[in-house]
Automatic annotation (TrEMBL):
Annotated Fe2OG dioxygenase domain residues: 209-309
Xref: InterPro entries: DIOX_N (IPR026992), IPNS-like_FE2OG_OXY (IPR044861), IPNS-like_sf (IPR027443), Oxoglu/Fe-dep_dioxygenase_dom (IPR005123)
UniProt cross-references to PANTHER family, sorted A to Z: 1-AMINOCYCLOPROPANE-1-CARBOXYLATE OXIDASE HOMOLOG 11-RELATED, OXIDOREDUCTASE, 2OG-FE II OXYGENASE FAMILY PROTEIN
Annotated protein name in UniProt: Fe2OG dioxygenase domain-containing protein
Source lineage: Eukaryota, Viridiplantae, Streptophyta, Embryophyta, Tracheophyta
Organism: Eutrema salsugineum (Saltwater cress)
């Protein structure tokens, strides 16, 4: 009990600084507080990282996606293969200008390196707000506290007014989010076609309702072997579009090995979320992934989740009838996204996938 009480007190003291992990680094600490120590030893698990020569995340060139039918079919085939076997892929020539990618990364860095008094005015644990800055959404419930700070914005269906977004990142966020919405529409078309369905199928089922953008800042860590930037998890979404900088650290669990998602200039990382695995009845897979802490930081990433997890949504989802047959019966029961999300947010981030609770 004493240990638990100490842990809670330390977490609360950390939280009340409102300075996040960046505040610890600014204080020039040489040893990380024990609340950041990974208690489960997952960094030393048997799922050893492998060299990229053995496994490599697919990189898909979208150049031909708006061309002739044969070019598009070739892209769809690659998307299908990646969604079924990896649950992750990188895309290049995706239509989002390089200048837009650089501007949003610069904006995220500028906000997180802003004067602490400015950042404090946005600090909150009320995650229904349009713009929220915090460190570790599950600070008081998770066994592992991660070495990162975050700001989150709901960009759809009701985006914030420009003045509600801090000036440091305002232009970058607004411009990037427009492109991400457009790319999301294209991705859902390609994934629908990869299922052998009409291109508007997934969009018509509400998979694009709601977009949450989380912008992460991973400061350099003095003891990166003791903690994680983000603990292993699968995503509470239909689809996630991730922009990462050149620092690296993102790893995907594939065939019981941790595989690096090597930063590729100009690329965006795409991954299947839990909801899409469920509605496709396991055709597409939502896989666990994590981010290592590092000394080289700060690492910047921007994750856009196509999901309505924090907003009321009465839609009932389940395995798509178009994909079911006597030979392929439904593997999951029906669910609503708020129902799924309530359980997902309560679980420890190191638990196995929440999908297991919805298996028939």
């Amino acid at each position: 009990m004493a240990t638990e009480f100490d842990s809670y007190s330390e977490r609360k003291a950390f939280d009340e600084t409102k300075a996040g992990v960046k505040g610890l680094v600014d204080a020039q600490i040489t040893e990380i507080p024990r609340i950041f120590h990974d208690p489960l030893g997952t960094l030393n698990d048997k799922k050893a990282p492998v060299a990229n020569s053995e496994f490599a995340i697919p990189i898909i060139d979208f150049t031909g996606v708006h061309g002739d039918a044969a070019s598009r079919e070739a892209v769809v085939k690659k998307v299908k293969d990646a969604a079924e076997k990896w649950g992750f892929f990188q895309v290049i020539n995706h239509g989002v200008p390089l200048t837009v990618l650089e501007e949003i990364k610069d904006g995220v860095r500028k906000f997180h390196e802003e004067d602490i008094e400015v950042k404090k005015s946005y600090f909150s644990r009320d995650f229904s707000k349009k713009f929220v800055y915090h460190s570790n959404f599950n600070l008081y419930s998770s066994s592992s506290i991660n070495w990162r700070d975050t700001f989150g914005i709901y960009m759809d269906p009701k985006p914030p007014q420009p003045e509600e977004i801090p000036e440091a990142c305002r232009e970058g966020v607004l411009e990037y989010s427009k492109h991400v919405m457009s790319l999301g529409g294209l991705l859902f078309e390609l994934l629908s076609e990869a299922l052998g369905l009409s291109s508007d199928t997934l969009k018509s089922k509400g998979c694009m309702k709601g977009v949450l953008m989380l912008s992460h800042y991973y400061p350099p860590c003095p003891q990166p072997k003791l903690t994680l930037g983000t603990s292993k998890h699968s995503d509470n979404s239909f689809l996630t579009v991730l922009l990462q900088d050149q620092i690296g650290g993102l790893q995907v669990l594939h065939q019981d090995c941790w595989v690096d998602v090597t930063p590729t200039p100009g690329a965006l990382v795409i991954n299947i979320g839990d909801f899409l695995q469920l509605v496709t009845n396991d055709r597409f897979i939502s896989v666990q992934h994590r981010v290592l802490a590092n000394k080289a930081g700060p690492r910047i990433s921007v994750a856009s989740f196509f999901s309505t997890s924090m907003h009321p949504n009465p839609t009932v989802y389940g395995p798509m009838k178009e994909l079911l047959s006597e030979e392929n019966p439904a593997k999951y029961r029906d669910f609503t996204i708020p129902e799924y999300s309530a359980g997902y947010l309560k679980q420890d981030i190191n638990d196995e996938s929440h999908l297991a609770y919805f298996k028939i």
